Amino acid sequence: MIKAIEELGRRINTSCADTFANRYFGRFFTGDMTLKYDDDAFTLSLHQGKVIAIQAGVPNTGIDLGVAGATKDWRQFAERKSLTVSITKINPNNLSLLGAPLRTRQNFNALAYLCRVFSEVLEEQGTAGKKVEA
Questions:
Q1: What is the homologous superfamily of the domain 2-124 according to CATH?
Q2: DSSP string of 36-88?
Q3: What percent of the chain shows pLDDT beyond 70?
């Protein structure tokens, strides 16, 4: 799973940088985004939309904002590619938002795009829907 997260960070800084920064307002985000895939948690530290560090686990300061889900939840997200739809409680296999509601609301577009790119990486690596050792 760490390879998928490292690829996500690389894409956010390279091929997806302009889209993340300008279309999804990532350039305004400084802080940590945590993604949980089953029991595995990974945190990307960003400064003005650039990934500056990746670490396994939750930061000591707690979760700034993020998304959590089981394998089946991320598989369902891969089909929808919509974080808004995927966090709705009426849907089976919904993802959960992590962190403070106001911080999440302020940075929802950037978080949603990060999840979309993460989903694409999982699909390309063939790990969408499979439990992968960290």
A1: SCP2 sterol-binding domain (3.30.1050.10)
A2: EETTEEEEEEEETTEEEEEEES--TT--SEEEEE-HHHHHHHHHH--HHHHT-
A3: 94
